[in-house]
Amino acid sequence: MAQEEPARGTRYKVDPAGRIGEVVGSYLGSVYLRPPGGGTEWSVRPDLLRDPTTQELGTALMYSTPVVAP
Length: 70
Known about the structure:
Elements: E1 12-14, E2 20-27, E3 30-34, E4 42-44, H1 54-64
Antiparallel strand pairs: 1-2, 2-3, 3-4
């Protein structure tokens, strides 16, 4: 998939269903998001996305941080 300019703003966005995702690219008028920590991408129209709240961003960062075994 060819990529256009990434969505502006934070690297995380929230879709209308309340799912938070990391912006991985945009193509043909859609922004592609991936769940924090990995998973299947989904697409959303950019005008339907919003920035995450502080709490949502904290949750996303927690899930995307690797755990290192002692």
